[in-house]
Write a structure and sequence with these properties.
5-stranded mixed β-sheet, 5 strands, alpha/beta, globular, Rossmann fold, 212 residues, 11% strand
């Protein structure tokens, strides 16, 4: 069984958006488990209303599919412990972005070392991104309030910082989807997907201007 877990923490995200993205990139989904309005920074997976159900649902050989490891958490130790616990129980963890696979049945010592290093790296990246986003949001808000209090900020972006990072990562993948598929997967217009693909710095600047 393939269980897709979605964590939604902002109004710019939806469970359907994450599931659609997974299916658009060729992943099969048998069951969806989701937590909405939950922070990955302050709430462990084992403490979330539905996230904790995964520890009872998953059986040996099942696949836990997530958009990226940050859906499991934004804390280094928590993410590492969660992935290792699921592998210990015989489940396989896969990510939609980057197509990572974490399989506890691996026995080759070199492969285990590489797998464990990737788990640590991605968990650390999830926490680092959360911290960087918080700093950038604070800086953007402070700038818009002091430097240009009456300036026209343009149209409010239809994406958040995390979504922009995922879109850019997808565009940089070996076989990126078409702009139409990208727009559908991330819940943005095709025009927005085009603008991001052509000028990523301007897309980031728009988020900074709005303090998003």
């Amino acid at each position: 069984m393939i269980v897709f877990y979605a964590r939604v923490s902002t109004t710019d995200q939806t469970t359907a958006h994450q599931v659609t993205q997974a299916r658009a990139m060729g992943f099969k989904v048998d069951k969806v488990v989701a937590d909405e309005g939950v922070s990955g920074v302050s709430t462990k997976l084992s403490e979330r209303e539905n996230g904790k159900r995964l520890f009872d649902i998953l059986r040996p050989g099942d696949v836990l599919l997530v958009r990226w490891v940050d859906r499991l958490g934004r804390n280094y130790m928590d993410v590492c412990d969660t992935i290792r616990e699921f592998m210990k129980r015989g489940a396989i963890i896969r990510t939609v972005i980057n197509g990572m696979v974490f399989d506890g049945s691996t026995t080759d010592p070199m492969q285990c070392a590489v797998r464990d290093s990737l788990i640590a790296f991605m968990a650390a990246t999830a926490q680092a991104q959360a911290e960087a986003t918080k700093i950038a949001q604070r800086a953007g808000i402070d700038y818009s309030r002091t430097a240009k209090p009456n300036a026209y900020l343009g149209r409010k972006p239809s994406y958040d910082r995390a979504s922009l990072e995922r879109i850019c990562t997808t565009l940089d993948s070996p076989s990126p989807p078409s702009l139409g598929q990208l727009a559908k997967a991330f819940g943005v217009s095709k025009q927005t997907a085009f603008r991001i693909s052509k000028d990523r710095q301007a897309s980031m600047a728009a988020l900074d201007a709005w303090g998003l």
